[in-house]
């Protein structure tokens, strides 16, 4: 778990550097955020695969694991909010703005979305 703690510290430092970079170059900051988001998702997958056994619910390893997972959640939320701010638009949000009276759900995105689904007959 110590390795994961160090990796999350490194990611947090990188995120802070990108936030400073965004003050002068949002385009480059956006590109860096997308790369960092992928790195965080890969790390999350690796951490989830190394989940400690839950035989001892009060073990220090389990508490360390939960702390790392919690930090990754916080980092991921920060990255997502920054990505939205610098340019990436969530298709759900876009369709909700375009068609506020329609019900937009995940079913509309199964095979990509087709605006013809939203045309009224």
Strand and helix map with partners:
Blueprint: H1 2-21, H2 26-49, H3 60-86, H4 91-98
Helix pairs in contact: 1-2, 1-3, 2-3
Key terms:
about 0% strand, about 120 residues, mainly alpha
Overview of the structural elements:
This protein has helices at residues 2-21, 26-49, 60-86, 91-98. The radius of gyration is 19 Å and the shape is flat. The chain contains four helices and no strands. By secondary structure, the chain is mainly alpha-helical.
Distance between the termini: 57 Å
- Regions with little confidence, pLDDT below 50 for 5+ residues: none
Radius of gyration: 19 Å
The count of DSSP E runs of length 2 or more, i.e. the number of strands, is: 0
Number of separate helices:
4
- Give the H and E element order: HHHH
The biggest sheet amounts to:
none
Overall, the morphology is: flat
Task: Please state the average pLDDT score.
Answer: 76
Structural class: mainly alpha
Kindly state the percentage of residues in helix: 55-70%
Strand content: under 5%
Task: Give a short synopsis of this structure.
By secondary structure, this protein is mostly helical. It contains four helices and no strands.
């Amino acid at each position: 778990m110590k390795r994961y703690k160090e990796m999350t510290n490194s990611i947090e430092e990188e995120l802070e550097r990108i936030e400073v970079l965004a003050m002068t170059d949002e385009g480059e900051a956006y590109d860096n955020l997308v790369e960092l988001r992928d790195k965080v998702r890969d790390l999350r997958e690796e951490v989830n695969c190394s989940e400690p056994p839950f035989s001892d619910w009060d073990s220090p390893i389990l508490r360390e694991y939960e702390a790392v997972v919690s930090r990754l959640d916080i980092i991921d939320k920060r990255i997502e909010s920054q990505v939205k701010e610098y340019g990436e638009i969530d298709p759900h949000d876009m369709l909700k703005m375009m068609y506020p009276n329609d019900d937009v759900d995940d079913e509309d995105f199964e095979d990509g979305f087709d605006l013809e689904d939203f045309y009224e007959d």
